[in-house]
Amino acid sequence: MSSVLFDSPGPRGRRNSYLWSAAAVVAIAGVVYLGARRLAENGQFESELWAPLFDPRHESFPAVWRVIRQGFLHNLQAAALAMVFSLSIGTVLALTRVTSGARVRWLVVGFIELFRGIPVVIAIFFASRVLPEFGVDLPTLWYLVIGLTAYNSVVIAEIIRAGLNAVPSGQAEAAHSIGLTRGQALRIVLLPQAVRIMLPALISQLVVILKDTALGFIIAFEDLQRNAGFIGQELDNPLQAYLLAAVIFIVVNIALSRLAVYLEARLSRGTRSKAAQVTEVATDATTGA
Amino acid sequence: MDAITDNLDLFWRGILTTLEICVWAAVLSLVIGTVIAIFRVSPLPPLRAVGTTWINSVAVGQAEAARAIGLPFGKSLRHIVLPQAFRTVLPPMGNVYIAMIKNSAIVGAFGVSGDLFWVGQTLTGARGYGALPVLLGVTAGYLILTLPAGAAVAQIERRVVIAR
Fold first, then answer.
1. pLDDT value at A9 more than 80
2. How many CB atoms lie within 10 A of CB B85?
3. Which residues of A touch chain B, with CB atoms under 8 Å apart?
4. Among A5-9, A22-26, A238-242, whose mean pLDDT is lowest?
5. Do B100 and B22 contact (CB within 8 A), yes or no?
6. Which member of A41, A229, B89, B101 has the lowest number of beta carbons within 10 Å of its beta carbon?
7. Do B143 and A117 make contact, defined as CB atoms within 8 angstroms?
8. Distance between CA atoms of residues B154 and B157, nearest Å
């Protein structure tokens, strides 16, 4: 932010600014210090609590990391399955919505609005409760995947629709005028352009799916978070164990977000503003995670 | 359908509890978010370092005009910049709040409170009702909250959006 909101200060203003800045630094440092002191008082900085997680020479280190790795692999597995299903079902929903007649369209819109209105937590929990009542007995992993897919497929359908809408209408008209059918126009002309526009939004939604796999704890899915809790209980260091889990999630998600930014820069040359619009639509959707 | 008709009062209280949690979260996050945004644009470097901001969407000319008529930082923010910034961000903020209604379900998973998700868990678990009717009830509860909120956001969006 340029300093449009205030004049560049004169000598007295600068002195005041230094004074207040110093006060602000002291206040911020004070808050950090108080937090740190509380933690120190409770012995949270004892190496005993950190070593099993971060010191390879510690006896528990291999076991701890085996459990952590297993947990995170479960997250990745659930995320990969949910991503594949959400993408395919989402694409089918979006294409049905834009190609079919009024009656089917309203059906699809109703379906989308219904599942967009349910919290993903509810979708996961009730997948694990409702399906067994109908004799569908699956491993926990699949209830999580089904819950995540129910929610994210409709969000992805909305992203794809926004992407299709963002392709200039002249493209569809041109495709029709050279004799392509509606299906051909969609597949050959519109979708490839739409994918370019919506890729960043799509990737951020996929990141949301990965993050939401942590909600598996609701149905006792043995993911990274649950395993970290387990370690915290065994070694009596829940703070450190959850911190480690958080760091792993943050690192992986930042890497994926970076990938999204990189792909956006590469793919949306010339269609930047359109991509930004779709990203906006998608952020509305992703905040609903 | 007994699961719903027998427990209408429980569902109703669940809806109210969910709403209550959201109102608290909405107010607190609005206040803290605004403070962080003000930090972000303030003249003091350490505060600037603390907090993304929406204020940037307000035309630069507005801030320049505020300064030209001699308003200091606090007044130009309060009278000129923030009122316009709030209008611009109302629609996205509305969407954040709708998302908050849904995200509030997570508290039920921690066994806190009597919110809608907790109602669903209690009825299917301890009270032994069938999961499908309870699911319908819980879903209806969330839709009662989110659909009107969504319509309201769309309405506000049409009304307050400023042409730039």
1. no
2. 20
3. 1, 3-7, 9, 17, 20-21, 24-25, 28, 113-114, 117-122, 125-126, 129-130, 133, 215, 217-218, 283-284, 287-289
4. A5-9
5. yes
6. A41
7. yes
8. 5
Nearest to A128 by CA among B124, B112, B87, B116: B124
Query: For testing the chain B interface, which of A122, A215, A219, A283 should be mutated: the one with the most B CBs within 10 Å?
Result: A122
- pLDDT tens-digit readout, A129-148: 888 888 878 888 999 999 99
Interface ipTM above 0.90: no
> Which of B 24-63 lie inside 8 A of A, CB atoms?
40-41, 43-48, 50, 53, 55-56, 60, 63
Alpha-carbon span A91 to A272, nearest angstrom: 23
Contact (Cβ atoms closer than 8 angstroms) between residue A240 and residue A53: yes
What is chain B's alpha carbon radius of gyration, rounded to the nearest angstrom? Answer: 21
User: Using one digit for the tens of pLDDT, what is the confidence trace for A136-184?
Assistant: 788 889 999 999 999 999 999 989 988 888 888 899 899 999 999 888 8
Neighbours of A250 (CB within 10 A): 11
Residue of A nearest to B52 (CA): A1
Closest Cβ–Cβ partner in B47, B101, B131 for A126: B131
Long-range contacts for B126-131 (Cβ within 8 Å, ≥24 apart)? B129/B2, B129/B3, B129/B7, B130/A133, B130/B3, B131/A126, B131/A129, B131/A130, B131/A133
| Alpha-carbon torsion, ordered B39, A200, A174, A178, to 10 deg | 180
Residue recorded with tokens 């528990």? A60
Nearest C-alpha in B relative to A7: B67
Q: How many CA atoms lie within 13 A of B109 on its CB side?
A: 20
Which residues from B are below 8 Å from A1, CB to CB?
40-41, 48, 53, 55-56
Q: Report helix, strand or coil for A57.
A: coil
> Would you give the DSSP letter of residue A244?
H
CB A130 within 8 A of CB B131: yes
Q: Which of B53, B131, B147 sits opposite A129 (nearest CB)?
A: B131
Termini Cα distance of chain B: 52
